């Protein structure tokens, strides 16, 4: 009887070991594969795996990616799960100091990592402390490790955000290994005494950054000989003339928000290889120099018109000229999405400056009565259109439809008509 019990215990222990082996199969994977798995996690989650076993204790330090975010690192909890809004008695400056300690510690433990594939850093600043020196040290380490992708987002406390943008360290401007550079927030790229060196940079995002000197952006773009994607967003800038010249860029996204009382702004674009173009915001005086023969897709969302003659009788004419100047440059596009939100655009849709011979799909959003005229004139100038999508905007104003005889070729080429958000059958009568 005793022998039977002993055999039973041995069998259970054997089955338990076998079960544990099956359950922990992931720990038996090669180190390189485990590091690859951890690279998909934010750094705080990767660090949390160090408690699993001795095998995992320092495994996260070999991951060639860092993702550090003040929104996810808790100064009061060891697991770094952050919800600062529920942490009492801790001001923004104290949280920033804690975050600095975490970043330094992570970089120290990661010294074995030779090459840094990606470094994402989101840092919210507060108080009177100067953080330039910390940012410089962190980014200098990233540059020394030959970082390929840098995603930097800087946020200031409202009391200090506008007056003290952080200056990026010189090491980043000459980081020749960068392939992707994304800058968002209160950082300053004005470097009159330095030259940029980005021979490998293919993707560049500049969202809300400071460059008060007129030629800072031009100098930066000229240092990117293989740039393929550029995203640029600015609000209320004071420079009246801005030039974007990148002969190699294929994707260009621009978002502009202007002050109508300070808006004598001009934007010049030189991008002959452009394939995808997105514009969103207040329409300034935009001039596209090259004929865009390779243009495939364009999305245009005009919020309002930036014009010093806002109260002038010539405002409507001024707006029409700006729209025509923009759409004339887009005449080779194949897929077009158009949305006007400006009510004053009542009579600009009567004559288009060019024909859209290549246009096969049109997505058009309607908000006010004048937009029907714009749509109908687009249809008159798109002889090869195959797909038409007409949708009602969120700020749609009820109005009667404006009739204009559609071209004869529309019915022979159009394969699909989709209208969204309309209950009135008048739309079908208009486009039938």
Automatic annotation (TrEMBL):
<dbReference type="InterPro" id="IPR055411">
    <property type="entry name" value="LRR_FXL15/At3g58940/PEG3-like"/>
</dbReference>
<dbReference type="InterPro" id="IPR036047">
    <property type="entry name" value="F-box-like_dom_sf"/>
</dbReference>
<protein>
    <recommendedName>
        <fullName>F-box domain-containing protein</fullName>
    </recommendedName>
</protein>
<dbReference type="Pfam" id="PF00646">
    <property type="entry name" value="F-box"/>
</dbReference>
<dbReference type="InterPro" id="IPR050232">
    <property type="entry name" value="FBL13/AtMIF1-like"/>
</dbReference>
<dbReference type="InterPro" id="IPR053781">
    <property type="entry name" value="F-box_AtFBL13-like"/>
</dbReference>
<dbReference type="InterPro" id="IPR001810">
    <property type="entry name" value="F-box_dom"/>
</dbReference>
<feature type="domain" description="F-box">
    <location>
        <begin position="23"/>
        <end position="73"/>
    </location>
</feature>
<dbReference type="InterPro" id="IPR032675">
    <property type="entry name" value="LRR_dom_sf"/>
</dbReference>
<dbReference type="Pfam" id="PF24758">
    <property type="entry name" value="LRR_At5g56370"/>
</dbReference>
